């Protein structure tokens, strides 16, 4: 994955700011993640996943990060789009923001955040030329 590709993805994701939920605590994020990973649409596509832990993050650069080894999501910003971005990292077999990662993100956003957020994100991905650099 090129830095250009990652930059274009992050730019496209900005359209999701203000969409979705803001969570007051890590416990709320855990409850939300439990509802997502136990939903029919999720289980049908991804199967069972182990319980996901949520821990605070003190980064000045990143809103969150994911650790597939321990199934942990570290969050600085507890917003729905950041949570889904990190969940996509847990589900993707690569650490990259590659095509498979974006496919997972689109599926999560469509089903968890709804059609409007999904369509706006898809539009921004195309506008940013994300698919031109894959």
Structural description of this entry:
Strand 2 (64-67) and strand 3 form a beta hairpin. This protein is mainly alpha-helical and 134 residues long. Strands 1-3-2 form a three-stranded mixed sheet, covered by helices on one side. The chain has a single domain (3-133), classed as 2-Layer Sandwich (Zincin-like). Helix content is 52%, strand content 9%.
List keywords for this structure.
three-stranded mixed sheet; single chain; 134 residues; mainly alpha; globular; Zincin-like
In short:
With 134 residues, the chain is mainly alpha-helical.
Rounded radius of gyration (Å): 14 Å
The overall pLDDT average reads 88
User: CATH homologous superfamily, by name?
Assistant: Metalloproteases ("zincins"), catalytic domain
Structural class: mainly alpha
- Uncertain ranges: none
General shape: globular
Helical residues, percent: 40-55%
First-to-last CA distance:
8 Å
Strand order of the largest sheet: 1-3-2
How many structural domains can be distinguished in the coordinates? 1
| Sheet of most strands | 3 strands, mixed
What's the tally of helices? 6
Strand content: 5-15%
Assembly type of the chains comes to single chain
Task: Look up the CATH topology.
Answer: Zincin-like
CATH class, named: Alpha Beta
Name given to the CATH architecture:
2-Layer Sandwich
- Give the helices and strands as they follow along the chain: HHHEEEHHH
Structure summary, number of beta strands: 3
């Amino acid at each position: 994955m090129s830095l250009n590709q990652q930059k274009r993805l992050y730019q496209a994701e900005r359209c999701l700011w203000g969409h979705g939920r803001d969570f007051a605590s890590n416990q709320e994020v855990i409850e939300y993640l439990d509802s997502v990973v136990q939903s029919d649409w999720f289980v049908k596509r991804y199967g069972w996943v182990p319980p996901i832990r949520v821990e605070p993050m003190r980064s000045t650069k990143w809103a969150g990060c994911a650790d597939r080894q321990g199934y942990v999501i570290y969050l600085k910003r507890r917003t729905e789009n950041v949570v889904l971005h990190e969940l996509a990292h847990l589900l993707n077999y690569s650490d990259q923001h590659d095509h498979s990662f974006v496919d997972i993100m689109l599926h999560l956003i469509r089903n968890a955040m709804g059609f409007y957020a999904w369509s706006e994100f898809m539009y921004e991905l195309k506008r940013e030329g994300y698919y031109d650099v894959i």
